[in-house]
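*** Residues and shapes ***
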Amino acid sequence: MTTFKTSLRNFLAHKGRMALSAIAVLLSVAFVCGTLVFTDTMNTTFDKLFAVTSSDVTVSPEKTDETDDSDGPPAGGRPATLPTSLVEKVAAAEGVKSAIGMVHSTSVTIVNEKNKNIGATGGGPTIAGNWSEVDLKTFDISSGQAPRGPTDVMVDADTAKKKKLKIGDKIRTITVDGDFTTTISGIMKFKVTNPGAAVVAFETKTAQRQLLGGDQVFTQIAVTAESGVSDIKAKAGIAAALGGSYDLKTAAESADEGRKDVASFLNVMKYAMLGFAGIALLVGIFLIVNTFSMLVAQRTREIGLMRAIGSSRKQVNRSVLFEAVLLGIVGSALGVAAGVGIAVGLMELMGSMGMELSTDDLTVKWTTPTVGVVLGIVVTVIAAYIPARRASRISPMAALRETGVPADGKSGWIRAAVGLLLTAGGALGLIAATQADKAGEGSMVLAVGVVLSLLGFIVIGPLLAGVVVRALSVVVLRAFGPVGRMAERNALRNPRRTGATGAALMIGLALVACLSVVGSSMVASATEELDKSVGADFIIQSTSGQPVVPAAAEAVRKTEGIAYVTEYRDVVAKVTAPDGAKAKMTLVATDPTYAKDLRKKMVAGRQADAYEKNSLSVGEEYAEKHGVKVGSKLTVAFNGGRTGQLTVRAISSDDSAIEQGAIILSTETLRSFVPAEKLPQIFMLFASAKDGQDKAAYEALKTSLEPYPQYKANNQADFKDQLKDQVGQMLNLVYGLLALAIIVAILGVVNTLALSVVERTREIGLMRAIGLSRRQLRRMIRLESVVIALFGALLGLGLGMGWGTAAQKLLALEGLGVLEIPWPTIITVFVGSAFVGLFAALVPAFRAGRMNVLNAIASD
């Protein structure tokens, strides 16, 4: 109890000094809890949606290679269907109360009267279907009426609000069979939160004819079981009536399937965000270690008195750890509360990107605060253990003489040796990664090298501080005369503290530098590859991943100034190699002009020969792995078509980032095995202008595609810009997440300076007494902060560029062979670190300048 009271008294006595450490714990725990609350809320939202949209039993076409659209859009552009005659057969099954035919298609684009795409954004689907009484489970008609004829359509309320649609407005629906115009007759509102889908509903016959190509088919049958009959029993009755050749799912099974569809997306988001939270926690550990190290040093005499009156080492150790527990509890409790706020903020952010989440579904499971509090306490106690152990080793006489913690030269040498060993191991790992023959194997070696080099720099930080800070001081501090030299000595006074403070900033900036190098190298490599390999003038594809409908493809072909157009299709097939190996693969079917659109390097045969009938080309790695040579035959079973033997006419080099390892055949060959109605849709188009008509053809092409706003024609300059934007957006997102770790690192610099000022109170008083002005004092502290920040930045940027360079060497195995160091970014971050140091020093410098000289000299 006495130990607890002592710890509580010390905690309250130093509450100002504990505040920044508590903020570090708060931010890290808040990000963890916010991530958990956010993903749990998303799960709740989808669970509710699946619950209201799932019928007691749903009858769908049996899943086969032909009907399974998990590999892309359905063959022919239309979903698999069931005959209308099946509805009566299902309705007559045992345990069934009613059966209603449903139409459901996502292979559509919806545009308004201004020809603007009004479909879902941010990854949500655009869903078109028929309106029936089944939909009353999911929607309420908030205004207007249900569609009653071929010119009527209903739109969901969320889409109507976002796109400013109202009853009486006309919308155009673009499908694989053409497009048709309807008038909004009603607005339907989801009974639960709509996560971001755009939904339109037509009269049943219209939906069948326009979306499915005939009025005698449905995509699903929604079944309502009789009262008192379980879904499982009703499913069994339907299976008996139909003979088991269909896909039957109960409401629970449909909901589970829906959860699986979104689980991969949610898990990637969840674990990525938790990874960044873990980085912030790691940085926070350095802040807490510094805090407790300095607090222990400042209480040396107090600890000596405790030991002199009988306190054991364990009691001293326990006293410091109790303070850490109190810090962890306070920081974690506040972090859990802040986490809910972060979750709400993330929901608003997702809303701006098109995924709507309602605070009505906000889900805070009991495990979330438990995880947050336990995590905060454990991390804080771990960080405080070394300072606590060091405090317990102070002898009473040494403490009473104010000699502080006795220097341990042996431990310093051990630390240096371990640090050098880890750094050397990390360097060897990075070098070994660059020598790997395969990217998969090298990535594991790279990961080991990154971890070891990071640990090495952290451990060896105090040793590096003495060298790097002196070098930086020559450039940065010496120009400020005596004040600069004093700032240098202060930064070098405790290399362990400076090393830990710099390491906190180093971690975040190392990741920034690494990703910047990788991103810049990817863009530079892809740009070089485009210049070297792509011969087409224009690339036409959807902005949302939709295939190119025949009408749009025809509009491109008729464009004035276009010399030729190449169709590009993805084809799913089962391929059997000469050695008997079988695999489900995605092949590429194109026109012979693709040989001009993409100049591929061949290691055997000629690229043009692969476009002969019943021929193809394969990638170099596939050929080596399965013993394939020019003249070898592959057995190819096409989805929705026949099986045949195709002859290998060429083997392409894998020294390319574009179409690396692709198996390519001609569209003519594909048509000979797959009937027209089952032919995969066009994924993209390549086009080239007639000689001297590039600009005119480009403008004409954009005009031709105006009726189809879901497609964009890019020339090579557009495509490069688009690539840069995509990589830039990804990097900006990562930088935003890393900002949390950098904020915590800045707090560490602030905390170190603040505690350092307190530690040097008497010294500051003496300097002021002999003539140091307040302005000079504040400048000294600011310069000390700047050099510490630059020290961390220099280590981080150097380490990150090393990681990025090694990663690029692995990417070179995938065809991305250009290394580009983004010097403007690196220099900006380095200079920005100096401003970070200035900012971090504002409060400590201001407080130091306000010290009373006499009180400072008299301080104990």
About this structure: The first strand starts at residue 57 and ends at 61. The first helix runs from residue 2 to 13. Residues 28 and 278 are 8 Å apart (CA to CA). The radius of gyration is 34 Å.
